Here is the input.
Amino acid sequence: MPFAKLDYMPDKKLIFSKDQIQSRTKELAEQISRDYAGKELVIIGVLSGAFIFVADLVRAIDMPLEIDFIRVASYGAGSVSSGTVTFTKDIELSIKGKNVLLVEDIVDTGKTLSFLKQHISDKKPASLKICTLIDKKERREISVNVDYSGFEIKEGFLVGYGLDYAEQHRHYPHIFHLLSPKK
Ligand code: IMP
Ligand code: MG
Here is the structure.
């Protein structure tokens, strides 16, 4: 096993290891540093899922930037989207006229992201791009453009590296497929 402990974790299958995530994050950060060179960049992380990804991504971006967080709830406590996005914490920085990069953990149906995109666009940033660690592209119900994507997966409910199931499992250093989440 490439990871220690975690014996207490229920049925799981390793999907992306810590090393795989780290090297892909570094590639994304290099691309972002090149694309935004000389520009004013604000990173907005979507809580709670993206908190670990944002922490690793920003430390690999080699340029000045500002960081803020926004919070929405879309899943309730289960693994099936409720379809309703509830907005629970807004950003605090002023982003008017600045270049915003919104950082998500997973884009699934696209409902959360389209809601967030509209909300952030209303604040009149100079530009708005999306970075997600994982893209479940084939499950999209609302079309939303993703500019930077770490990994694509077709199916399965993932946990670890910030991703939760009912607020559990976020602290694992790797990403696992949770084999039998309760619906
Ligand atoms: P969407 O609105 O259907 O695109 O859902 C996106 C949100 O659902 C993400 O920000 C995640 O918080 C959550 N989500 C979607 N798929 C997964 C998963 O496989 N594991 C954990 N959270 C997920
Ligand atoms: Mg979540």
Q: What stands out?
A: The mean pLDDT is 91. Residues 49, 75, 164 surround magnesium ion (ligand 2) (CB under 6 Å). Residues 49 and 162 are 5 Å apart (CA to CA). The longest strand covers residues 99-107.
